[in-house]
Amino acid sequence: MLNDPLFFVVAAACLVVVVILAIGIGGFGRGGEFNRKHGNRLMRYRIAAQFVAILLILGFVALRRMGG
């Protein structure tokens, strides 16, 4: 698995989702101007990043099952 470059792409995509989520939760927790200005946009970015990460995970699993 560690020899597969797609594994690292999937891991990076998951890490991006976690980072966006952490920034969004941190901004929500503090409130203020940052949250009012960027809160909804960050959550939209998170949803898009999760969509890409899920597609990559499904592709990775499909390729592993086919023996690729």
From TrEMBL:
<dbReference type="Pfam" id="PF04588">
    <property type="entry name" value="HIG_1_N"/>
</dbReference>
<feature type="domain" description="HIG1">
    <location>
        <begin position="1"/>
        <end position="68"/>
    </location>
</feature>
<keyword id="KW-0472">Membrane</keyword>
<dbReference type="InterPro" id="IPR007667">
    <property type="entry name" value="Hypoxia_induced_domain"/>
</dbReference>
<protein>
    <submittedName>
        <fullName>Twin transmembrane helix small protein</fullName>
    </submittedName>
</protein>
<feature type="transmembrane region" description="Helical">
    <location>
        <begin position="6"/>
        <end position="26"/>
    </location>
</feature>
<feature type="transmembrane region" description="Helical">
    <location>
        <begin position="47"/>
        <end position="66"/>
    </location>
</feature>
<keyword id="KW-1133">Transmembrane helix</keyword>
<keyword id="KW-0812">Transmembrane</keyword>
